[in-house]
Amino acid sequence: MTLYEKITTLYTELTDADFAPDTGTIMLQNDSDGRGDYIKEWNHPTLAQPTQEQLDGVQ
Amino acid sequence: MSTVKSKKLQVGTDATSSNNFTIYQPATPDGTLRIGVGNAENPTEVGQFNANGYKPQQPVAFRAFLGSNQAVSVGVFTKMTFNTEEFDTNSNYDHSTNYRFTPTVAGYYQVDLKAQWVNNGQGLIMVHKNGASYAWGNYPVNGYGSMASALIYMNGSTDYIEGFVYFAANNTVNSNPATTYFNSILIAQA
What we know:
The complex is a heterodimer.
Chain A: H1 3-10, E1 26-30, E2 38-42, H2 52-56
Antiparallel strand pairs in A: 1-2
Chain B: E1 8-11, E2 21-24, E3 33-37, E4 44-50, E5 53-55, E6 61-65, E7 70-72, E8 76-79, E9 84-88, E10 93-94, E11 100-101, E12 107-116, E13 123-129, E14 132-136, E15 145-154, E16 161-167, E17 171-173, E18 181-189
Antiparallel strand pairs in B: 1-2, 2-3, 3-4, 4-5, 6-9, 6-18, 7-17, 8-16, 10-11, 12-15, 12-18, 13-14, 13-16
């Protein structure tokens, strides 16, 4: 499961627009350095950035 | 009228050597006249002339493309792994680790980043400078690619640029070097 899928599973109210380059408040990034996807920016007005524990708990 | 013959001629006698110039023949003559900054004992070359006139220095430029298609996760800004170089005149493009261009000559660079997708879908590409987005490509709802072009000042030491891609739905970047590439050339030193 990708980071995007884990986040949207945790917060089902999120839509593609929340991650979009032009309208989004959440920015996920992958630097192609083997470390995988990560949250680069989280500026959502109402939802808190999930903890690593929360993300790890998503199945 | 007298004739002066010399291998080096210093122009200027300022106490600060960088205020002086030297015109000289290289230690191994090759048909060029060199111009350097500094005193005759140790000039730093800044230009050459040959029988055809001024000989421009080799431009700082690179062009790179993907060695294979690159799969990208939905909703994630992903660095494009341009791991195959067509040319890299000043060895300033890292094609194996960071996939970034860090020119060692300060100035204004024309930068082109283009990508084609395998499937029709929404996506865009971005040129990042020093880790932050700098120039976006087009972002059509439906399409097979995106292109960004920008004129970017680079300081010749720490500044670097990279290419990123974003997909709103599952997609893959096509590695065709004619349609997916990253290139830059120094337009003017500054």
